[in-house]
Amino acid sequence: GGPTEDQRINAATTTASQESLCTAMQPFYWEIGDANGRKVSGSVGPSAPASNTGMSIASASKWIYGAYVVQKLGGNLSASDVKFLNFRAGYVSFIPPTCPLATTVDDCLNTNDNGRYTSSEDGRFYYGSGHMQKHASLLGLGGLDDVALGGELASTIGDFGFIYTQPQLAGGVYADADQYAAFLRAILSGQLRIADDLGADPVCTNPRTCATADYTPVPETESWHYSLGHWVEDDPLVGDGAFSSAGTYGFYPWIDAGKTWYGIVAREVLVNPNGDQEGYVSAQCGRLIRKAWLTGSVQ
């Protein structure tokens, strides 16, 4: 029969508040729910964020853009669309800090070498924002500023309250956990077409174990795959097959491999010693909370 809901709640709450990988990254907010709503949540540590605390979600924006493209194209992605969404399109020179000064999507793309195509990288996995920025321009979004970009996405996938603080598709969204949770519930309920494409067209990402991968922010001790704007956490040793999209500042949303539960670890570390590893730091804690929920056992 599996664990009861009370057992799940106790296990997840205890893990979030006491497991060493989680206590080491305080403060943070977390929650778990299903298509119908939140089941459990908590704020951990001094001055911890709440569910409605806004923050820059960085690369968690990628899942949003992936969902937008699938919805906009009616689920009919070309082979070229797929290459852009799973980061094999050859646009590997994007420098994220340049885009807050840009007015439109194309302004951002045309800053420095952001839009430069490198033919030798075409077909190879390289985690970076240039692929999505170029794709958005090709899709007709090039002239949109922050406000218009947010409006375009809202009109296509639903208005979850996401706003863009820079016209960058792969990292420009500002949101809170409540808003992102509503987006994840829309996936789980089937409201968004990407529900059928979670894990679709996966590519290997670890340069140490994959001959066609050149860069990943995930430590090379783990081998994940990348799908349409989201990760598949299927490392042979520690992976559980969850779908996720961790951001560089620590915002970590996920849907479990069974497509029944969603979860979020929300934190924003703008200045940190781990660089773009803060997303992985959150993922380490988040997957333990997820395992606690799924098994009903404290991790």
Explain this structure.
The protein has 299 residues and is an alpha+beta fold. It is 32% helix and 15% strand. It has helices spanning 5-18, 20-23, 61-72, 79-85, 105-109, 130-141, 146-157, 177-188, 278-295, and strands at 28-34, 37-44, 55-56, 125-126, 163-164, 173-175, 203-204, 213-215, 225-226, 231-233, 242-244, 252-255, 262-266. Strands 2-1-13-12-11-10-9-7 form an 8-stranded antiparallel beta sheet, with helices on both faces. Helix 1 packs antiparallel against helix 9 (278-295) and helix 4 packs across helix 6 (130-141).
* Helical proportion, percent range: 25-40%
Largest sheet report: 8 strands, antiparallel
Q: How much is the radius of gyration in Å?
A: 18 Å
Question: Structural class of the helix and strand makeup?
Answer: alpha+beta
Number of DSSP-assigned strands: 13
Distance between the termini: 20 Å
Q: Count helical runs.
A: 9
Low-confidence stretches: none
Lateral arrangement of strands in the main beta sheet: 2-1-13-12-11-10-9-7
β-strand percent reads 15-25%
* Mean pLDDT level: 96
Order of helices and strands: HHEEEHHHEHHEEHEEEEEEEH
Apparent shape:
globular
